[in-house]
Amino acid sequence: MKNTVRIGTRKSKLAMVQTNSIIKMLAQIAPELNFEIIPISTLGDEILDKPLIQFGGKGVFVDAFEEALLSGKIDLAVHSAKDMTMQLPEGLGIIGIPKREDPRDVLVTFDKELTDSMKAVIGTSSLRRQFQIEQYYQAECKNLRGNVPTRLEKLKNGEYDGIILAAAGLKRLGLMEEKQLHYRIFSPEEFVPAAGQGILAVEGRLHDELSEIVAGINDKETAISLKAERRVLERLNAGCHEAIGVYSEVNKDLIRIDAVYKKGDKTLRVKEEAFTGDYLKAADRTADKLLDCVCTAHTDLICTKSSAKMR
Ligand SMILES: NCc1[nH]cc(CCC(=O)O)c1CC(=O)O
């Protein structure tokens, strides 16, 4: 096997940090390998003035990588799992899934904390974040794009009273303890994260020698969680233009899945629990219940398995 592995990554600082952390893990299990980082520009990085939903959704961050992987220009690509499309091209797959970083969402404010039910202009382009933050504040959501440091700059410039970011990105960039910033961290129960949030996924060509090496970085529980969460999205046929949160946690023999879905004026919530080995069945049941309710239920809120209420 060639011993220089070329790893494609987006150019943002977060993408670079993520790629370097994967390289560190790989270097530990395969010290004979060398790594070269190949920065790749995607449509999603270049068009910054529109919400993603207006120009093709999630795929805009990953298509260029898949071409590069298939043509052999790169050997691996490092992604935030939550930005990945459901269908990967024939021959490619997620071959490495390390332990999940903090999955939670954080409301970041500058110089102040928001009080409950206060009127506030909130920066986020995510429909999932929009409908959930409305459960806590009288939020008027304004589009917010760009990489994490740019988003924080826009907050500091006073364009927003608060912005919502993933704890994972903030932590990876060392931006979770900035002076003057306040962080309201929501538990996954209070504010359901995006499928795959906080998880890194290494994409590569299936069944080659490298894929066996990369599998060495896998965290079993994270891998199960990611598969379960992605399965729910797949069954709902949900792209990033859907207001949907899916979060799962594996605890030894048990997996719990928690999903919220806003469709029209209905807000649906489903909780499932199953033996870990049945994680796909649990994901299917979660999706079935959501679909069922979208089609038939009169109630605008359902809770199964437990009585957690959204506010
Ligand atoms: N949509 C952008 C994006 N994709 C991945 C992360 C970082 C968090 C993660 O790794 O899941 C972010 C930033 C954010 O949502 O705050």
TrEMBL record:
<dbReference type="Pfam" id="PF01379">
    <property type="entry name" value="Porphobil_deam"/>
</dbReference>
<feature type="modified residue" description="S-(dipyrrolylmethanemethyl)cysteine">
    <location>
        <position position="240"/>
    </location>
</feature>
<comment type="similarity">
    <text>Belongs to the HMBS family.</text>
</comment>
<comment type="pathway">
    <text>Porphyrin-containing compound metabolism; protoporphyrin-IX biosynthesis; coproporphyrinogen-III from 5-aminolevulinate: step 2/4.</text>
</comment>
<dbReference type="InterPro" id="IPR000860">
    <property type="entry name" value="HemC"/>
</dbReference>
<dbReference type="InterPro" id="IPR022418">
    <property type="entry name" value="Porphobilinogen_deaminase_C"/>
</dbReference>
<protein>
    <recommendedName>
        <fullName>Porphobilinogen deaminase</fullName>
        <ecNumber>2.5.1.61</ecNumber>
    </recommendedName>
</protein>
<dbReference type="Pfam" id="PF03900">
    <property type="entry name" value="Porphobil_deamC"/>
</dbReference>
<feature type="domain" description="Porphobilinogen deaminase C-terminal">
    <location>
        <begin position="226"/>
        <end position="279"/>
    </location>
</feature>
<dbReference type="InterPro" id="IPR022417">
    <property type="entry name" value="Porphobilin_deaminase_N"/>
</dbReference>
<comment type="function">
    <text>Tetrapolymerization of the monopyrrole PBG into the hydroxymethylbilane pre-uroporphyrinogen in several discrete steps.</text>
</comment>
<dbReference type="GO" id="GO:0006782">
    <property type="term" value="P:protoporphyrinogen IX biosynthetic process"/>
</dbReference>
<keyword id="KW-0808">Transferase</keyword>
<comment type="subunit">
    <text>Monomer.</text>
</comment>
<dbReference type="GO" id="GO:0004418">
    <property type="term" value="F:hydroxymethylbilane synthase activity"/>
</dbReference>
<dbReference type="InterPro" id="IPR036803">
    <property type="entry name" value="Porphobilinogen_deaminase_C_sf"/>
</dbReference>
<keyword id="KW-0627">Porphyrin biosynthesis</keyword>
<feature type="domain" description="Porphobilinogen deaminase N-terminal">
    <location>
        <begin position="5"/>
        <end position="209"/>
    </location>
</feature>
<dbReference type="GO" id="GO:0005737">
    <property type="term" value="C:cytoplasm"/>
</dbReference>
